[in-house]
Amino acid sequence: MPSLRYIYFLLLSLSVHLAHSSITLDQIYPDWSFTTAKLLPTTSSACKAAYRAPIACDETLLGQAASMRGSYFDPTPDDFNRTCTLSCRDSIDNFLLGLIKSCSSSGDGAPRDIGFGNTGVYEPDADPVHVVGWILQYTFAQSCARDSQGQYCAVLSRAANNEFFCNDKCNLQFYTHAHNFPGAHWRFNHYVLISQSSWWENYFIGGWHTALACGAVEENTRYADVKAVLAGEKTTKTTASAVPSVSASASASASYGSGNGNGQPGGAGGATTGGNLVTFAGAPDKSVQTSGGKRLRGLFAGHF
User: Fold this and answer.
1) Residue 281 DSSP class
2) At what angle do helices 86-102 and 130-143 cross, to 10 degrees?
3) Residue range 126-177, pLDDT digits in tens
4) Which of 211, 140, 225, 213 is nearest to 179 (CA)?
5) What integer pLDDT is reported at residue 30 of this predicted model?
6) Closest CA to 282 of 273, 292, 271
7) How confident is the model at residue 197 (pLDDT cuts 50, 70, 90)?
């Protein structure tokens, strides 16, 4: 019969695992404070309820999206293994869909800082609340990219270069997904929402042109077309058949983009599943790519 001490440590380990299995944006974490209190005062209760919905992802996702702790936030491959799962990916998509549907009232909004996060001066017009969901969706895709050796691009932390060789899978994925995901146009700085600067946008254009020359493809990502969602149309089916089975072999592959037209994900070199793990192993072919989200914050510091 197991000892009480063994049972205690077993329950403690389980509680730690569960603590990492779900997050909510309405809670303050070491790397997150953009709660419902930061939304416009006129934001509806329905929108706030959608914003509070649990997201089945590791806390690492929030650090990738918003951390200002420098070297104190230094995620490991194990952190990304816990983050890059099918359940996290699908939960982000469902969270985004909930924001789009529930935050469409005229008073709903996410204030955008005009002074790069440290002035407290805001743009006259707030952004739609679903922008936050877009950012998480984009952060997930970037964070789960791997190079040809299977290492996470975000862990490698190599400087992004908009002039690269086509076998540089991290840069190829980085610029392709920065183009394809609408969330790339915003970021969090000093824990407030801001737009990417014109410097970043111009630098990015060069990277996208290089990616195009390497065979990158422009595609719509899930729920990028908000009008279509609100009109009752779906850019990607979200039934069980729209994602690979968690029991699929490690060689099974699926694009994180809009699918192949019949509700099934498609595209060589996209997301591959090994167990419940999602990896974005890019290839210099004509498919949707991804890259490391941490690099968006650190690589262009001082240029925004």
Assistant:
1) E
2) 160
3) 999 999 999 999 999 999 999 989 999 988 866 677 888 999 999 999 999 8
4) 211
5) 93
6) 271
7) confident
Beta-sheet strand order (sheet of 271-274)? 145-146, 277-281, 271-274, 253-254
Q: How far apart are CA 247 and CA 81, in angstroms?
A: 17
User: Cβ distance 204 to 162 under 8 Å?
Assistant: yes
Residue 201 has pLDDT above 60, yes or no: yes
Half-sphere exposure of 161 (CA within 13 A, CB side): 8
At 181, the amino acid letter reads: F
Q: Domain coordinates of the chain in residue numbers?
A: 25-298
The Cβ-side half-sphere exposure at 29, using a 13 Å CA radius, reads 22
Name the amino acid, one letter, at 102.
S
- 212-215 contacts at long range (C-beta below 8 A, 24 or more positions apart): 213/166, 214/166, 214/172, 214/284, 215/166, 215/284, 215/285, 215/286
Q: Is 55 helix (H, G, I), strand (E, B) or coil?
A: strand
Using left for φ > 0, alpha for ψ between -120 and 50, and beta otherwise, residue 76 falls in: beta
DSSP codes, 95-125: HHHHHHHHS-STT--B-BBSSTTSS--B-SS
Instruction: Give the span between the Cα atoms of 238 and 224, in whole angstroms.
Output: 14
Q: What distances in angstroms separate CA 144 from CA 126, 138, 169, 171, 184, one per listed residue?
A: 30, 10, 13, 13, 15
How many other CB atoms sit within 10 Å of the CB of residue 293?
30
Q: pTM (2 decimals)?
A: 0.73
Query: Which of residues 151 and 303 earns the better pLDDT score?
Result: 151
What mean pLDDT value characterizes the chain?
A: 74
DSSP symbols for 60-94: HHHHHHH---GGG----HHHHHHHSBHHHHHHHHH
Give the span between the Cα atoms of 153 and 172, in whole angstroms: 11
CA–CA dist 254, 243 (Å, integer): 8
Q: Put residue 117 in one of left, alpha, beta given phi > 0 → left and psi -120 to 50 → alpha.
A: left
